[in-house]
Amino acid sequence: MSKLKVYIKNNQxxxxxxxxIRLLIRRCCQxxxxxxxxxxxxxxxxSFVSNxxxxxxxxxxxxxxxxxxxxSFPLMSNRKDEFNDDTGIVMLGDIVISxxxxxxxxxxxxxxxxxxxxxxxxxxxxxxxxxDHEVDRLGERIMREKExxxxxxxxxxxxxxxxxxx
Length: 166
Fold this sequence. Notes:
Elements: E1 4-10, H1 21-35, E2 42-49, H2 51-62, E3 70-74, E4 90-98, H3 99-108, H4 113-128, H5 137-153
Parallel strand pairs: 1-2, 2-4
Antiparallel strand pairs: 3-4
Helix pairs in contact: 1-4, 3-4, 4-5
């Protein structure tokens, strides 16, 4: 089985990071790679930022002067792996999540914050592997079906929280 290194950094102070989120993110990333039969050692970075910071990144990299929930920065180009020459590990890229927006969306969609963060992580991992829902309706449908299938396998489908309320 391939190894996955997930670097998680909390770069915001607006929302307290819930207990268990780091494990959830690692499980989501691994589930995507497993579902996609990705069999190489890999690494990915996940950062939590404020709305202000994600708005700044969205403006710089997508020319959209608005906040968003998640941004993906894939390192693969044309489905060609980007290797770390020192380790031989595939560097998938970076995921940036606005925790403020995740809280807001969890409330709007009436599900747990854990489910929202799980969804955003899975969604972004699929982007890192080359999927794109913004190209056409088929691409959007394929991504949505994969997202829900992976979340269901993890036990965090709609309305179900991954983290127990002990």
